[in-house]
Design a protein that fits this description.
The protein is of the alpha/beta class. It contains 14 helices and 17 strands. The strands form three sheets. Strands 9-10-11-12-13-14-15-16 form an eight-stranded mixed β-sheet.
């Protein structure tokens, strides 16, 4: 038996394809789909992105996506999946089951009126996904007979194929904040921000005080411990740090009894608002993965990388090498380049 994790190049987003080969065959798990360009890009979408290429490879093997997880509705997580649903011969035909905490599932869970304005539309032509016209994603999933999971909430343990998921986020408090019309996501041009890369690692953590993320959509993000063949991995989406910390404590983990995992997919592309020192002291991991090309939000924050370097002995892996070159100041190269590594995007167990 073997497990392959592909950290696909998803621009400023997340897209992971995990394939388990066992005695009963292959099981393919897709976690998010990156921005729309992760599927196809360029004039008339002529050029294949990493997600399209990965799906083509599965098709040549006669395989499907057994489970797709949409962690939350931000365009850098769901955009590529929506584009792959829109394209003939891809996800409409390939996906068997899906986790997607839609607005309707959330309102049904809390027994409140539906909010049609929050429906995710599958036929979109702009950078945003939440208010476009066309079929809703839920209607398309029903049409193709794709199995829909109930609302995914912290505290659940879910089995799917060879995988076991211990859900860490979202909690009910985060979901309740979504019981209104969701604000439209800002475009990349509106969210490209300054970074902290000119501050040295030695100085960046002086008087470090953690301030948690307050983005309402991020509070809905699905995060989980993924277990397969006695291997554990931690996928955090864009989840709130305090929610993940609270759930880890409830599972019995502490600084004296750390959660052992092969790797951590760092929350929110390395934002300083989503990775605290308290969290880092609850986990024992060989490496921390940063998924972003740094195009928007000024992410990853150098402060997050500094916290990982100080609080752990782990490596930090980047799926875009240019981020490392931007992060490290000339006088820091000898000290830090051995722990900050670019990698091919593939991990095998």
């Amino acid at each position: 038996m073997s497990t392959k994790v592909q950290v696909l190049r998803a621009n400023h987003g997340d897209c992971f394809l995990i394939t388990h080969d066992g005695t009963e065959g292959s099981f393919n798990l897709l976690i998010d789909g990156g921005s729309p360009a992760t599927f196809k890009h360029g004039a008339s979408a002529k050029h294949k992105g990493a997600l399209c290429t990965a799906l083509d490879e599965l098709k040549t093997k006669g395989q499907c996506i057994d489970l797709a997880i949409l962690t939350h509705i931000d365009n850098d997580h769901i955009g590529g999946i929506l584009k792959a649903f829109k394209a003939q011969g891809y996800l409409r035909e390939m996906v068997k089951s899906i986790w997607f905490n839609s607005s309707k599932l959330i309102t049904d869970y809390f027994d409140t009126p539906d909010i049609p304005e929050n429906a995710v539309r599958i036929d979109f032509d702009s950078a945003n996904t939440s208010t476009q016209q066309g079929k809703t994603l839920e209607a398309e999933l029903e049409k193709i007979g794709c199995h829909r999971a109930p609302l995914v909430v912290a505290g659940q343990t879910i089995n799917a194929g060879p995988f076991t998921f211990q859900i860490l986020s979202p909690n009910e408090a985060g979901l309740k904040k979504l019981l209104h019309i969701w604000p439209q996501e800002k475009t990349p041009a509106e969210t490209s921000g300054a970074n902290d890369y000119q501050i040295s690692f030695d100085n960046i953590l002086k008087e470090d005080c953690f301030e948690p993320d307050t983005s309402i959509p991020n509070g809905s993000s699905i995060a989980f411990i993924l277990n397969v063949d006695d291997i554990s991995m931690l996928f955090l989406g864009d989840a709130y740090d305090p929610v993940v910390v609270s759930e880890l404590h409830s599972l019995g983990y502490s600084s004296n009894n750390k959660l052992p995992v092969k790797f951590v997919k760092v929350s929110h592309h390395g934002s300083k608002y989503n990775t605290s020192r308290e969290f880092l002291n609850l986990v024992e991991s060989e490496c921390y993965i940063i998924s972003t090309n740094g195009a928007i939000h000024g992410l990853p924050d150098k402060k997050t990388i500094a916290r990982i370097l100080v609080e752990t002995n782990a490596f930090v892996l980047f799926n875009y090498e240019k981020i490392i070159k931007e992060l490290i100041l000339p006088h820091e190269e000898e000290r830090y380049t051995k722990r900050l590594l670019a990698f091919s995007g593939e991990i095998n167990f």
